[in-house]
From TrEMBL:
Bilayer disposition of the protein: Multi-pass membrane protein
Record's signal peptide: none
Similarity-based family: Belongs to the 4-toluene sulfonate uptake permease (TSUP) (TC 2.A.102) family.
Entry keyword Membrane: yes
Superkingdom of the organism of origin: Bacteria
Keyword Transcription regulation: no
Name of this chain's protein: Probable membrane transporter protein
Amino acid sequence: MQIYLPIAEVSVNAFTLVGLGGLVGVMSGLFGVGGGFLITPLLFFIGIPPAIAVATGANQVVASSVSGVLAHVKRKSVDFRMGGVLLAGGLLGSWMGVWVFNLLQRVGQVDLVVQLCYVVFLGLIGAMMLQESLRALYRSSRPGHRRRLHQHNWVHRWPLKVKFRASGLYISAFPPLLVGVAVGVLAAIMGVGGGFIMVPAMIYLLGMPTKVVVGTSLFQITFVTAFTTLMHAVSYNTVDIMLAVLLIIGGVVGAQIGTGLGARLRAEQLRILLALLVLAVCAKLAVDLFMTPEELYAIQPGIG
């Protein structure tokens, strides 16, 4: 069933959009990521202009993240204090990111910069996650191997320490605040929730136990992406409501399915699957950068 998207100014199949939303929703509940790193490139692939895909993709991330975080709240696997610190940094970062996005929009380089950001960040994060996850899986399979809850590093020597009871941590508030800022900037420029950055940072940098990482990540992603969507809508009218509604319908259902699947898999297996998915999306985007487009010239949809 073909429908016309008034803001994006293209016609797409409605069932395809619902399916994409459902797929991203499953990723959200399964891995604790908002799914923007997946939904935004997929929207590129079906012909949605990058500026519209970034802003509207962030809108869909809100819905799937809300659905996922509610399921984790019921299981008491959300560290609200840690989530609050990450959120404070995320709101600041998203404001900065929207400003940069608008600047790139004015100079006509937003499409190239967004795609390059995806290739660089997804490649680096995916490779590091895959390496560490395979190493963790190998260590856990060794008989008699005892795993430490978390290791103390330079992060744990910073001042202004706060006790995060749900995570079992007593660390400075600065590292999670800086992680939140970085994720907020990415949310605004790339249309992502930032979970593919935040989840590894929470596990390997902050030392949080995996059982509370997913829910806490989704808690922060929900509010940061909602703020980002509002900023994009007010600044450049780049949120297509029709597109967002269809993605949300699939995303809410998919998040519940993903949360159920996640409870049946080991933490190491989840991280390996996420790493492979990140690398696959990165490879597709990298190939597209070097391929000759079907149309050498395109008219940018009116934004203003």
